[in-house]
Amino acid sequence: MTKKTPVHQVSDFDLRLLRVFKTVVECGSFSAAESVLGITRSAISLHMGDLEKRLGMRLCQRGRAGFALTDEGREVLRAGETVLAAIEGFRSEVNQMHQHLRGDLNVAIVNNLVTQPRMRITHALKAVRAEGSGVRINLSMSTPGDIERGLLDGRLHVGAVPLIAPLSGLDYSLLYEERSKLYCSHEHPLFASAATVTDAQLAQADAVVPTYRMTAKAISLHQRLNFAASATDREGIAFLILTGSYIGFLPDHYAVTWVEKGLMAPLGPGHMFFDAKLAIATRKGRRQNLILERFLDELKLTDTPASN
After folding, report:
1. Measured between alpha carbons, how far is residue 189 from residues 186, 201, 209, 243, 246 in Å?
2. Cα(288)–Cα(270) distance, rounded to whole angstroms?
């Protein structure tokens, strides 16, 4: 690698290379980034080589062992994301002068909200997209902690997260309230007696427990179960339930498809349930952003029974 030298000036070319680098990291490899960037793998390799030469450091390891960031690469990625977010902030401010919607809306949500019957996020995104081709929506699925960190450091404009432990640097607005029940699959021994199952039977059955944050009520219910597996998200819980070996909690709106097909049933539905609130979060003291404000306004407009 070339001798490290300070970066005296950041050019448009440097920013373009940083965007290529960020895309490669998001895709996980040069080959996966080809279709996203619309350029060949060899061109991506040349761009990465140019960036490493200009910065005087190796950013990633690539070869038969696969793609992996170096320690310096992780630091450059973090700094690059901050720079690109600042540029987007500048563009948003210029938009205010022209009163014309143009730019990115970076949205992150927790997984499995697409089955929520009150499609507030979907309708709001549709309204923003209708503003024209100048608006680009970037939607990602992530954990609540990652979403909140992205909002605080400016990489994200808005996020949908469980309202459990609000952070002082964020504003929260109630979005949904969902109910989760305890489910088993049709291959589980408790399926036939799901409605009349006893607490003793539930305590003996192997259960899957989530590793993400939960409400106090959810924690207390999980503590009554026999912890035998864990999952990082609701989809992982559903996979394990469908093996027929585990019981676990899922939101009603997510489990309903399997229930209607006779593949799942709620266990002790009269008492084995908890409610959780989901909120839209934004950073306090954020710069005015017409696209974000339009999205938030549309969320309020869709908060009606007609949006079901």
Report:
1. 8, 10, 19, 12, 10
2. 46
How long a stretch of residues is the chain? 308
Q: How open is the CA angle 59-24-65, to the nearest 5 degrees?
A: 65
Residues forming a β-bridge with 180 = 251, 274
Q: Which amino acid is at 152?
A: L
CA dihedral (63, 60, 137, 231) positive or negative: positive
Q: Encode pLDDT of 243-282 as tens digits.
A: 999 999 999 999 999 999 999 999 999 999 999 999 999 9
The domains of the chain, with CATH numbers, are 12-81 (1.10.10.10), 83-175+277-307 (3.40.190.10), 177-276 (3.40.190.10)
